[in-house]
């Protein structure tokens, strides 16, 4: 795992502004040749820093429904289930899980009954309380902040430093903070794969 230098961070900033920016434009900004920029972007993709290039849609122009911000106080044993349910919902645009287990999401709800639509999204018996606010406007501006930029360990979610490890497992590149996390992840992956093959 190599350190990301200032050039890498500037390339990421430029791509965050416009993922379709030509390499020739980026090269003039970072003082590298277009092929060198291409090589760096390829490495950033291989290392999992860049997962995909996407389109930033203005949902208000293409989808109906009422934009809402929903805060859920979830019973601790159900936080993962609630997160997974909301992660797969088409109406949910942004999802946040706080360290204390509170789940907040931004969505466009189309039904006249917010409670009915929330019940379709998740099992409300897993939620202690919820609060729904109408959203007047929303801006989503992903940025690249060099001082706070770090990869997360696929096993324990700690920050991966230059001493970390990476491995391609099942065709996907994962990053780990240490060899112990890598071994635990590989062991669990192998066990689950063997169980799946047995069934």
Automatic annotation (TrEMBL):
A Pfam family this protein belongs to? TRASH_HVO_1752_C
| UniProt GO MF annotations | DNA-binding transcription factor activity; sequence-specific DNA binding
Q: Transcription among the record's keywords?
A: yes
UniProt entry keywords in alphabetical sequence: DNA-binding, Transcription, Transcription regulation
Domain named HTH asnC-type is located at 4-67
Q: Which residues cross the membrane?
A: none
What is the protein name for this chain?
A: Lrp/AsnC family transcription regulator
């Amino acid at each position: 795992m190599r350190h990301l230098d200032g050039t890498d961070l500037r390339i990421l900033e430029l791509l965050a502004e416009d993922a379709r920016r030509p390499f020739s434009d980026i090269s003039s900004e970072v003082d590298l040749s277009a092929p060198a920029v291409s090589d760096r972007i390829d490495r950033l993709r291989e290392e999992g820093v860049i997962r995909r290039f996407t389109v930033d849609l203005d949902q208000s122009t293409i989808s109906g429904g009422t934009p809402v911000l929903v805060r859920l106080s979830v019973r601790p044993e159900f936080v993962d289930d609630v997160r997974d349910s909301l992660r797969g919902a088409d109406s949910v645009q942004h999802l946040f899980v706080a360290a204390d287990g509170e789940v907040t999401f931004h969505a466009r709800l189309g039904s006249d009954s917010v409670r009915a639509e929330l019940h379709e999204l998740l099992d409300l018996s897993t939620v202690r309380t919820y609060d729904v606010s109408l959203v007047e406007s929303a801006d989503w501006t992903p940025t690249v902040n060099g001082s706070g930029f770090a990869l997360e360990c696929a096993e324990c979610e700690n920050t991966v430093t230059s001493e970390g490890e990476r491995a391609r497992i099942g065709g996907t590149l994962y990053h780990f903070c240490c060899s112990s996390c890598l071994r635990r992840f590989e062991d669990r992956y192998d066990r689950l794969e063997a169980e799946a093959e047995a069934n």
